[in-house]
Write a structure and sequence with these properties.
Number of strands: 13
Largest sheet: 9 strands, mixed
CATH architecture: 3-Layer(aba) Sandwich
Mean pLDDT: 94
Helix content: 25-40%
CATH topology: UDP-N-acetylmuramoyl-L-alanine:D-glutamate ligase
Structural class: alpha/beta
CATH superfamily: Ribokinase
Strand order of the largest sheet: 5-4-1-8-9-10-11-12-13
Shape: globular
Low-confidence stretches: 301-307
Radius of gyration: 18 Å
Number of helices: 12
Order of helices and strands: EEEHEHEEEEHEHHEHHEEEHHHHH
Length: about 300
């Protein structure tokens, strides 16, 4: 089943201790779409400016991503410039220029309004609500957010929560949103706000999944070198929603598998700069690492206990 995804397509300048890239295709929607397309059809909704390169539109099309609702508007494409510290869990946003995305109000196409699976990337709660108001009867809605929106439109975000099934946030955002420092308490508090599932991303420490009756912890895939963490959270969401859409439904087992696929996809993204890993990645690569991930985390408890 297809996913309709709404978010930002941007041009990024990224500085890390390992190097710099300038004017690279990025934005939350780019990472999400290029990751989720491995699992099934993806239809994107975004605005870009007159400086948007035709080869970048072709990049999406050549990978089967539906760009009918990628709207070209007068002005500049969203631009972000970030610098990561030696500890790449810490970054500074040096430049954020919204460009044509600043006053963009997404309008879904008729077939997109009938979508079963919807992903709302880290855009404003107002835009997220605007999109949801157009979708007729979605099976699963997942949303992401960032610190900026929690600090600047908390009422709007709280209003959105009962309308979504899955919320993905990092540990800092979970604490800020709930006022709870302990992440277990924070995850439970998110559920009380209305979301059915909370996925708390903890970078190199993995992910915590909170459901009404259970909790699931997934470690991060161990990497010797991380070059660029940009987009890892968006790729994680792509793996989660991709597997759910491929499965056509959600239960605890399917959700846990989806979280592992999300962790696997996110692990590829950080190995190179920008979206580059997602351009050369294959389904065989994903499956190989997924199987290795399962092997890595399987304690063979029953086998050891029988000896």
């Amino acid at each position: 089943m297809s996913i309709v995804a709404v978010g930002a397509v941007a041009y990024d300048t990224i500085e890390t201790p390992h190097g710099t890239v300038t004017g690279a295709l990025g934005g939350s929607l780019s990472y999400f779409a290029l990751g989720a397309r491995f699992f099934g059809p993806v239809s994107i909704v975004a605005a870009v400016g007159e400086d948007f390169r035709e080869e970048d539109r072709r990049l999406f099309l050549e990978r089967g991503i539906d760009t009918r609702a990628l709207v070209l508007r007068p002005g500049k494409t969203f631009h972000w410039h970030g610098r990561y510290h030696e500890d790449m869990n810490i970054r500074d946003s040096l430049v954020t220029q919204l460009g044509v995305f600043g006053d963009f109000m997404p309008e879904l196409l008729p077939d997109q309004r009938r979508a079963d699976f919807v992903f709302l990337a880290n855009i404003s709660p107002q835009l997220q609500e605007h999109v949801l108001s157009q979708v007729l009867s979605p099976r699963i809605v997942a949303a992401d957010t960032i610190k900026f929106w929690i600090e600047n439109d908390l009422p709007g975000f709280v209003r959105l929560m009962p309308r979504i099934h899955i919320l993905t946030v990092n540990d800092e955002e979970a604490r800020l949103l709930t006022g709870e420092h302990n992440l277990v308490k924070a995850g439970r508090a998110i559920l009380k706000m209305g979301a059915q599932i909370a996925l708390v991303k903890r970078g190199e420490y993995g992910v915590l999944q909170f459901s009404p009756d259970s909790m699931f912890a997934v470690p991060a895939w161990p990497l010797e070198e991380v070059l660029d963490p940009t987009g890892a959270g968006d790729a994680f969401a792509a793996g989660v929603m991709g597997w759910l859409a491929r499965s056509g439904r959600m239960n605890e087992s399917i959700l846990r598998t989806a979280v592992i696929y999300g962790s696997v996809l996110g692990s590829f993204v950080v190995e190179k700069f920008s979206i580059q890993p997602l351009l050369t990645l294959t389904w065989e690569d994903i499956e190989r690492r997924y199987r290795a991930f399962i092997e890595l985390t399987d304690s063979h408890y029953s086998r050891w206990m029988s000896q």
